[in-house]
Amino acid sequence: MTRKSSFPPVVRTDTRLLLLGSLPGEASLRAERYYAHPQNRFWHLVGAVIETDLPAMDYDDRITALLDHGIGLWDVVKSGRRKGSLDADLREVEGNALGELVNGLPALAAIGFNGGTSARIGRRLLGRETGLSLVDLPSSSPAHAAMSLAEKTVRWLALRPFLTERKDSDDVSPHGSMHEPDDEPA
């Protein structure tokens, strides 16, 4: 089994909702983009939450739209061994530094776990007392076919109360470096 690693977080200091997956699947790793598998419903589900047709946008515009709505992305697994893309096949898991990231996001109100593996590992990494709302979501993965897209959408819409209208926002690269606007070279 090959050891696979997650991407850097995509966040800004004004992130209010952090969506956490487990570990990118094969299609995402090849594309070097979050949720790249065409049958993964992540972009449809989050698009419903923010009332934006994310699947119609190119990747960088999707990321910008999420950030502009106060949504950040990351994974709970920093690295692990896995043949294929199924979470059930994850072995030798090393968790990401979620506590460190959460502590650096002063506006953070909630964390949404995309699927059971993300919730199980993420809750363990965060510990008991986070002061945040932790929301377990049905997986957007095509492997989780037990629930229809309509049913998943209803559950994901529970994220809306954690989002607020955007004000002035910080700059971010689409690949996750977080910085303040004043950090830009003149």
Describe the model.
The protein has helices at 26-31, 42-50, 59-68, 98-103, 116-126, 149-156; strands spanning 3-5, 17-21, 71-75, 77-81, 91-95, 110-114, 133-137. Residues 165-186 have low confidence and may be disordered. 27% of the residues lie in helices and 18% in strands. Helix 2 (42-50) crosses helix 6 (149-156). The strands form 2 sheets. It has a 4-stranded parallel beta sheet with strand order 3-2-6-7, with helices on both faces. It has a 3-stranded antiparallel beta sheet with strand order 1-4-5, with helices on one face. It is globular. The chain is of the alpha/beta class and 186 residues long. It has 6 helices and 7 strands, in the order ββαααβββαβαβα.
Quick synopsis:
The protein has six helices and seven strands, in the order E-E-H-H-H-E-E-E-H-E-H-E-H.
Q: What portion of residues belong to β-strands?
A: 15-25%
Strand order of the largest sheet: 3-2-6-7
Shape: globular
- Strand tally: 7
Name the structural class: alpha/beta
**What percentage of residues falls in helices of 4 or more residues?**
25-40%
Head-to-tail CA distance between termini: 46 Å
Mean pLDDT: 83
Mind summarizing the main beta sheet? 4 strands, parallel
List keywords for this structure.
27% helix, 6 helices, disordered C terminus, four-stranded parallel beta sheet, 186 residues, alpha/beta, 7 strands, three-stranded antiparallel beta sheet
